[in-house]
Design goal:
Elements lengths: L5 H10 L2 H9 L5 H15 L6 H10 L6 H21 L6 H16 L1
């Protein structure tokens, strides 16, 4: 069985979110056609066999004009901040011990 690399995990995790991402970006004034063009270009890079996250980033960066690099960097930084905020909001699953405590609390509540 082939091991999934880090880059593939990122892509898999993004695939279900494309619709939500589009709606989110459209709420900031980006047109659907504009988003589609960019997503198609990015998807074409990530489908190249042997692509790693480093190669993916290098392919994208090589297509950016010098004067657009600061805007691209800002976009990456904002994306990282948004991702960290989303991760911070997600609560991890309860451990078995926490589940046991929660059941005991419920028992106590109903026994009164």
């Amino acid at each position: 069985m082939r091991k999934i690399n880090y880059f593939e995990r990122i892509i898999i995790s993004m695939e279900g979110d494309d619709e939500d991402l589009s709606a989110f970006l459209q709420s900031f004034g980006f047109a659907e056609e504009e988003l589609s063009r960019v997503m198609d270009e990015l998807n074409s890079f990530r489908t190249i066999p042997g692509t790693t996250i480093g190669r993916y980033m290098n392919r994208i960066i090589s297509t950016i004009e010098e004067e657009d690099r600061p805007a691209f960097l800002k976009g990456i930084m904002v994306g990282v901040v948004i991702r960290k905020a989303v991760d911070a909001m997600a609560e991890p699953d309860l451990t078995e011990e926490e589940k046991k405590i929660a059941r005991e609390i419920e028992k106590l509540r109903f026994s009164k």
